[in-house]
Amino acid sequence: MSHEPGPVLIGSANAEVGMDRGREILEDGGSALDAVEAVIRAVEDNPEDHTVGYGGYPNLLGEVELDASIMDGSTRRAGCVGALRGYRAAISVARGVLERLPHVLVVGEGAARLAAEMGLEAEDLLTEEAEKVWRDGLEGRGELGRIGEMMLSRVASLATDPDRAAGTVDVIARDQYGNLVSGVSTSGWAWKYPGRLGDSPIIGAGNYCDSRYGAAGCTGWGELAIRAGTARSAVARLAAGASVGEAGEAVIRDIVELETDGHHPLMHLVVMGADGTHAGFTTRAEGAQYVWWARGMSAPEMAERTVVPV
Ligand code: GLY
């Protein structure tokens, strides 16, 4: 969809809970960086969303590990965190990496240390609901009692069922100055191997932003977006003159062509051009949506994603 140049905000459907916060920031002349962080913080705070932040599904050991990234398309500076434990606001810690450190990606204890230095509150992120799903999955395999002592690689295949395991939030904002920022946050796949990073904290895979050309964000099976370099590829196609529709469909077709051992290549993508034009894509069945808002709209709306056949 195309608009008059001005603020635009898009995201995966689960970003809806935070869209009004982002819209208010952009309407008040605020930055795309603040808008993206605010929308994603609302999703990270939502205990009903088991794929992001507080209440996220845990890894095989029952520990919630968060990944996130944020990229400023005007400077092409980025901040990313991986396997962050004990702090829900992964996107803010990612912004902390961007603004406070001479690095791009910080993981594990270092990420938690930075969160503490930023004054964020440490807490247990595992809710009863999320723990029950984790237990049920392992009990279904008869493995729950032995999980602390076994070779976890034997049960890592639990994390390959996209209907139970996948989910993420991605958000792209264009502010009134034409700056683009993209952000992604996730608890990753349920029952993932401890320390596993998906595409969300990997610039070029799950997230890429360049205010000259556009931005892209992925949700879905992160390993595929890493293997295909999906978000960077989408923006490179925009830079070469493709429309958002052409760029998005082409990079999803790249995903579909990957070898996946018979598993469905689950991937969703949102793309925004430098002028605020946007579109969403999916390999899932009809009906998958993304959420968007542009200046002049009183509330965010849902739009259909283009389905790329598998
Ligand atoms: N796309 C999120 C993940 O694979 O962790």
Descriptive notes:
The protein has 310 residues and is of the alpha+beta class. The protein has one domain: Glutamine Phosphoribosylpyrophosphate, subunit 1, domain 1. The strands form two sheets. An eight-stranded mixed β-sheet has the order 4-3-2-6-5-1-11-12. A five-stranded mixed β-sheet has the order 7-8-9-10-13, covered by helices on one side. A hairpin with a 4-residue loop joins strand 2 and strand 3. Helix 1 runs antiparallel to helix 2. The protein is globular, with a radius of gyration of 18 Å. The two termini are 24 Å apart. The relative contact order is 0.18. The model has no long low-confidence stretch (mean pLDDT 93). The structure holds glycine (GLY).
Query: β content, as a range?
Result: 15-25%
Bound molecules: glycine
Low-confidence runs: none
- Tell me which CATH architecture applies here: 4-Layer Sandwich
Q: How many individual helices?
A: 9
CATH superfamily: (Glycosyl)asparaginase
Mean pLDDT: 93
Question: How many E strands?
Answer: 13
Query: Quaternary state, please?
Result: single chain
Q: What is the 3D form? A: globular
User: Pairing-aware structural class of the strands and helices?
Assistant: alpha+beta
Give the topology string: H per helix, E per strand: EHHEEHEHHHEEEEHHHEEEEE
| Gyration radius, in Å | 18 Å
CATH class: Alpha Beta
Which topology does CATH recognise? Answer: Glutamine Phosphoribosylpyrophosphate, subunit 1, domain 1
Outline the biggest β-sheet: 8 strands, mixed
Strand arrangement in the largest pleated sheet: 4-3-2-6-5-1-11-12
Give helix % range: 25-40%
First-residue to last-residue Cα separation: 24 Å
Number of individual domains:
1
